[in-house]
Amino acid sequence: MSAASVKGWCPGALRPMQSGDGLVVRVRPFGGRLDAAQTAGLAHLAERHGNGLIDVTSRANLQIRGVSESSHRPLLDGLAQLALLDPDAGTESRRNILVTPFWRDDDETQALAAELEEALADSALELPTKFGFAIDDGKSRVLAGNSADVRIERDAVGGLLVRADGTKFGVAAARGEAVTTALAFADWFVASGGVRDGRGRMATHLAAGAELPLPLRGEAEPAPVMAAARPGLYPQGAMVGVAFGQMPHATLSQLSDCGRALRMTPWRMVLSEGKRTMPTASGLITEAYDPALRVIACSGAPRCREAHADTRALAAALAPNIGAASWLHVSGCAKGCAHSGAAAITLVATGAGFDLVRGGSTRDEPILRGLDRDDIVRDPSILMGGH
């Protein structure tokens, strides 16, 4: 079976996933950061070997779309030249790490990330593809609401702790112990039966009754959670949103010219490192309260062969009508690839129209079925219970 025939999991560069517009090749930046040369190089590779479209994912990665079977090998060669390729698919799949974008040059974030990457590469752990780690070691936590199974964080007085997702407290760890402790959590997860049929998440495993061993039970309370990041200027640089998590290669190329590096986030935003003015490239969201920030949409048709509708056109039409306190998720099918959790309003495309779920996810029972796309655009009040 060729790599291109693989589907239904989190893609990588070495194990791409087939979609409606070709292979999806996921690039996982080391340390959650791309320097300017890597950013420009990725834009060139997306133009030359893909269809020019690049996704910014909820796992802080980039995806090059529209890659053909014949162009996959040259693309991998290009990624290797940019130092963005793992030695093998197993190492790549384990290197699933979120890194806070708000690190400073004098802190330990990048060193922790590099140490964890190296430890995972040397590990023989067979983790589910969605199992991940977070390095959220600032004075305030910014990744608490994002998907991760083992978290390296700070406590209220600045000490390091390691915490299993789904638990309130973590284990205090000295600087030299943090990565080893994180791998101990992952090792226990596998040994205690957390993986079933290649799947499994830490919080679900604990909620089902699994009990951490005494050495992994701690009383260290994590630092407070920071308010949600928005587009704007920060001490580290300029944060910009990417409309619906997708941009053309030209936009990425422009970003490579306006800052020292790009720091990736799981919020479909990127931070242009050292930038003191907001970038103005096409398709970027620069206003802190732009309505498009409250809308999530998957690739949709025709880009995804599983999708029943063009999700992004509908999302763009509806965005201005979504209240400031609401979230809209438009999914091309019931899988909910772009957002697995609940939203105030979820629209799920089917062969018979759109199903409407309020306060739930694509897996929940809809309150209305078979809504017509044009009717929704003409009267968006139906989404909020106006009828």
Could you characterize what this model shows?
The model is unreliable at 1-8 (pLDDT under 50). By secondary structure, the protein is an alpha+beta fold. The longest helix is centred in the N-terminal third of the chain and has 14 residues, at 36-49. The chain has helices at residues 36-49, 69-81, 89-94, 109-122, 178-191, 202-207, 249-256, 311-318, 373-378; strands at residues 17-19, 22-27, 33-35, 53-56, 62-67, 97-99, 133-136, 150-154, 160-164, 171-172, 232-234, 237-242, 246-248, 261-264, 269-273, 284-285, 295-297, 328-331, 343-350, 353-360, 368-371. The strands form 4 sheets. Strands 3, 11, 12, 14, 15 and 16 form a 6-stranded antiparallel beta sheet that branches. The N and C termini lie far apart (50 Å).
Question: How do the helices and strands line up, and which of them pair or pack?
Answer:
Elements: E1 17-19, E2 22-27, E3 33-35, H1 36-49, E4 53-56, E5 62-67, H2 69-81, H3 89-94, E6 97-99, H4 109-122, E7 133-136, E8 150-154, E9 160-164, E10 171-172, H5 178-191, H6 202-207, E11 232-234, E12 237-242, E13 246-248, H7 249-256, E14 261-264, E15 269-273, E16 284-285, E17 295-297, H8 311-318, E18 328-331, E19 343-350, E20 353-360, E21 368-371, H9 373-378
Parallel strand pairs: 6-7, 7-8, 17-18, 18-19
Antiparallel strand pairs: 1-2, 2-5, 3-14, 4-5, 4-13, 8-9, 9-10, 11-12, 12-15, 12-16, 14-15, 19-20, 20-21
Helix pairs in contact: 1-2, 1-7, 4-5
